[in-house]
Structure formats: structure tokens, C-alpha cells
Amino acid sequence: HLTTSLPLPSERDHLRPRIDLIAFMIDIKSRYSLKNVEASLAHVDASFFLGKVCFLVTGVGRVNYCSIEMNAIWKLGKVYCSPVLFCELELEGIRVATAQRLLRMLQICAGHIPGVSALSFSSLMRNSADD
To answer: Superkingdom of the source (predicted)?
Structure first.
């Protein structure tokens, strides 16, 4: 399910499936994109930041056209203890690899991978990013 911003409309709460992972998309070429994500974060329950949120940054192949400082993106990931993934949607191979990575994260967050919890997975991703 996709939405352009949070909060979600409450009139359909009873029909909404369980939310296992929230992937915030940030277009590196758009300051509005980052501002929208920052505003939406206030509407996310704190428990989701225990491994069920990630930031997907698109447009990274066009660093000459960046409107957002990379430090702002890294800070967002650090403040919310959430992994930051970078992707170039226009390149099929990278797009497919990113989709597979997101699917694997979703499987873990939904509890479909025995022995791995969303919290431990998120911790592993943060540790690997620090290396």
C-alpha cells in the first residue's frame, strides 16, 4: 500500500491490514520530499522505530542535481535508528536489487523468517553501515 504522506485517514482503519514495514521514500533531487518525510515521521508510533522503518533514497545516480545534503539523510537514519537504503530507480538492475532487499526486510518485519526479528535485523544493518 502506498500513501503520499501521513497520517493515514482514520475512516478506513478497520479495513487496513497490519503494517509490518514503513519505507519512507526520499527523492534526493527534491527538498519537498525530505520535508514531507520529516512531517510524516511525527505520525508514526514510536514502536515502529524498533526495526520497522527504513528510508529509501532515490535519484542517487544524479548527485550533481541534489537538493538535499547527504548529512541530513544520514542524520535522519541515525536519529530514528533506521536503515538508509540508496537506489537509482532508472537502472533496472539496481531497482530489482533494491526491491528484493525491501522484500527481504518486509519478510523479516512480518515475522516470516525464523530466528530473525525486525529489531535484530535493524541492528545488524546499522552495524554494517558503521563499518
So the answer is: Eukaryota
